[in-house]
Amino acid sequence: MVHVRVPLVPRSLRWGMVLTVAATILYYSVFTPPGSGVLQTGPFGVLGYGTWLHGLAYAGLAVTLAYAFQGRPWRDRTVLLAVFLLAVGYGAGIELLQSTLATRTADIVDLLVNAAGAAVAAVCWRILTRRVRFYRARRLAALETPLQ
After folding, report:
1. So where are the chain's domains?
2. What is the pLDDT of residues 112-131, one digit of tens each?
3. What is the rounded distance in angstroms from the CA atom of residue 33 to the CA atom of residue 77?
């Protein structure tokens, strides 16, 4: 079986990525969302554009959280549960914040879509990590060939 080798950058960088994604979600949740008023439906015309953005945003948050937790001595299920709960909790906090803003509204459907995006990302992360081997890379010189 071929395993892909993925660098595990220092923990501070991994958590910096999580904070960057979380801050981006916060920014677009409080101010005008990207593409507002331009697109009505997302890909394939099945769901609204906003629904796709919610799902993708919280999937991205879940993936960065899972990467940040990589290397912890926790069981996989514990990590995935923590990732899911943190992403959904953050989404719930954003929805509560939006309920206090005159220009935004809180929506339970958005919260459910956030949870679905986080759940799909957590499951995909679990499947992906079966084919990936992480290694510590503290410098650019430590990067290795991705296939082994």
Report:
1. 4-32+54-142
2. 999 999 999 999 998 888 88
3. 33
